[in-house]
Task: inverse folding
């Protein structure tokens, strides 16, 4: 258990740094958040690739933690990375870390583990029917599309949260699809290649990654991270219950605390989005972006004709 805790803490810290690095790299790119060119430019950016390497390292550390400890424990520790990433992101912009930001990040970091521990999903079978999976993929696509549409109707940091919501929905389904692929892998490589879910897994991974980078490009990291940390495991748990047939612990003590965890997550996300610190960081990023665009549009004096 000690090994699990140590590696989970290391994985969370590594993931926090990876998010900070990738968000800063995304903010320096010229294409808009939903432009396919954004991804093409990022894969050629050394800073972003460094963040990608840190993400891979984080997954490796998390795998070690999971081999020594239960999923609920590791996930509960991993989500605490928001307590590092959000304040550090604010300090990098030379902003004072406000009370609302700290309380909001803390509410997400406490609410998600509380909901997971109290509900404790168990049982279920990832080998769901094709019909159930098709309905799930359609529902995930529709909900993710709603987040993208909502982004166009919102203003400020809420636009980044809307894109992060879409990314979290897709990545939550990716986690569930990964469970199915592991079942197929135990049956042999041929089962993986011939299963259509394997190809949907690849599409979900690419689409979810694009939406997350778009959220990073749209606004401050603190506006995206709470939604990602809370949304991805929540969607994965919902798919586990509705598609895999997993059951939740709903005792007279567990259910109220699980609902309390969900309420804390929602209130935490709202508190972070509306915190003065995040609003100031968003203004700073927009000002820096406008300054960079103006600098890029001015002609080079050495090449200007008299």
Result:
């Amino acid at each position: 258990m000690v090994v699990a805790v140590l590696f989970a803490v290391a994985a969370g810290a590594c993931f926090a740094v990876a998010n900070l690095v990738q968000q800063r790299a995304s903010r320096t790119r010229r294409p808009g958040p939903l432009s396919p060119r954004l991804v093409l430019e990022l894969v050629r950016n050394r800073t972003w690739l460094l963040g990608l390497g840190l993400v891979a390292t984080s997954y490796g550390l998390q795998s070690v933690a999971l081999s020594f400890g239960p999923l609920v424990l590791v996930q509960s520790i991993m989500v605490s990375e928001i307590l590092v990433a959000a304040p550090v992101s604010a300090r990098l912009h030379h902003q004072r870390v406000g009370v609302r930001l700290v309380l909001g990040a803390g509410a997400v970091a406490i609410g998600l583990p509380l909901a997971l521990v109290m509900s404790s999903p168990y049982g279920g079978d990832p080998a769901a029917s094709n019909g159930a999976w098709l309905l799930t993929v359609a529902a995930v696509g529709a909900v993710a599309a709603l987040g993208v549409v909502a982004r166009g109707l919102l203003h400020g940091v809420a636009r980044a949260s809307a894109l992060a919501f879409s990314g979290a929905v897709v990545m939550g389904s990716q986690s569930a699809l990964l469970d199915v692929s592991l079942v197929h892998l135990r049956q042999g490589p041929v089962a993986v290649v011939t299963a259509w879910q394997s190809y949907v897994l690849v599409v979900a991974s690419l689409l979810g990654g694009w939406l997350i980078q778009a959220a990073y490009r749209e606004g401050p990291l603190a506006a995206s991270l709470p939604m990602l940390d809370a949304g991805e495991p929540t969607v994965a748990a919902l798919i586990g219950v509705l598609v895999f047939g997993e059951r939740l612990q709903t005792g007279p003590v567990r259910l109220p605390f699980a609902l309390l965890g969900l309420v804390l997550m929602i209130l935490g996300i709202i508190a972070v989005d509306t915190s003065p610190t995040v609003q100031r960081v968003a203004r700073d990023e927009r000002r820096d972006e406008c300054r960079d665009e103006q600098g890029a549009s001015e002609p080079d004096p050495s090449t200007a004709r008299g």
